[in-house]
Automatic annotation (TrEMBL):
Residues 22-279 form the Protein kinase domain. The lineage of its organism: Eukaryota, Amoebozoa, Evosea, Eumycetozoa, Dictyostelia. It comes from Dictyostelium purpureum. This is non-specific serine/threonine protein kinase. Belongs to the protein kinase superfamily. TKL Ser/Thr protein kinase family. Transmembrane segments: none annotated.
Length: 281
């Protein structure tokens, strides 16, 4: 019988953080699971998500499922455009998820604040960062299922970090297509909205909606979609897209938002296209 090498720490212990080693500062956000604070862990700036699910919460089972999924998913990742997991802490039944601190807030803030100038090169760079993260995730067989501008964090150097993996799911030959409807309506793919089977190409459609946000700086609304839940050509092209937008960005947006998932590009292809668009700007 092989002996266990006790000199190597277990993964569970490696992620465990002593609560007393955390320092809480200002609140920087909130969501369905709880509040997020700027803080420090042994002197290193971090974000601390405080999670408290009440025993009598009618959605407790679902919330715990999504929470566990987020924790188990983000443990797996190491990519410059994906939020970095630091560890977990617990005190008095309250869970604390600790991640790297991304100072800038979410992308939607910058898109809706028209006083912030965003060149086409910067917009293409933002989209490229997201595509690199998503190519990495899909290569790991992970479908995000809730890709949107509020789940994209911006650091001080305009590097984008994909976050919020509560809806993320492994998709492979054993776990393919038959998944529940989840996400946020205005970013959802047609197949998800209509309750059909879907796969990683659903993320590509959501990315196309994010790309439309980046181009127009307008939050997605139902009127932008047609009867088939694809983009409305007339409204988007004639009413929303700025005249000086590079044609290649417009084409990529519509390619990502094709109603037929099989006709959408992969994120590897998207990343390559955006790299070339950046070179041309």
């Amino acid at each position: 019988m092989a002996s266990v090498d006790t000199s190597v720490p277990s993964l569970d212990k490696a992620w465990r953080i002593n609560y007393d080693d955390l320092e809480f500062n200002s609140e920087i956000g909130s969501g369905g699971f709880g509040k997020v604070y700027r803080g420090e862990y042994l002197g290193t700036p971090v974000a601390i998500k405080k999670i408290q699910i009440l025993p009598d919460d009618p959605n407790r089972v679902d919330l715990e499922k999504f929470l566990n999924r987020e924790i188990e998913t983000i443990k797996l990742f190491s990519h410059p455009n994906v939020i970095q997991f630091v560890g977990l802490s617990e005190k008095n039944g309250i869970l604390f998820i600790v991640t790297e601190l991304v100072e800038g807030g979410d992308l939607q803030y910058y898109l809706k604040n028209k006083s912030i100038e965003l060149s086409w090169f910067l917009r293409a760079s933002i989209a490229h960062d997201v595509s690199l993260a998503m190519a990495y995730l899909h290569n790991q067989s992970i479908v995000h299922r809730d890709l949107k501008s509020t789940n994209l964090l911006v650091d001080r150097n305009w590097k984008i970090k994909v976050c919020d993996f509560g809806f993320a799911r492994i998709v492979d030959e054993e776990n393919n297509k038959s998944m529940t409807i989840c996400g946020t309506d205005n970013w959802m793919s047609p197949e998800m909205i209509t309750g059909k089977d879907y796969d990683e190409k659903s993320d590509v459609f959501s990315f196309g909606i994010v790309l439309l946000e980046i181009i127009t700086r307008v939050k997605p609304q139902p009127y932008m979609r047609g009867a088939d839940f694809g983009l409305s050509e007339d409204i988007v092209r004639n009413q929303l897209i700025p005249e000086d937008c590079p044609a290649s960005l417009v084409k990529l947006t519509f390619d990502c938002c094709r109603v037929d998932p099989a006709q959408r590009p992969s994120f590897k292809e998207i990343a390559s296209i955006l790299k070339n668009i950046k070179i041309s700007l």
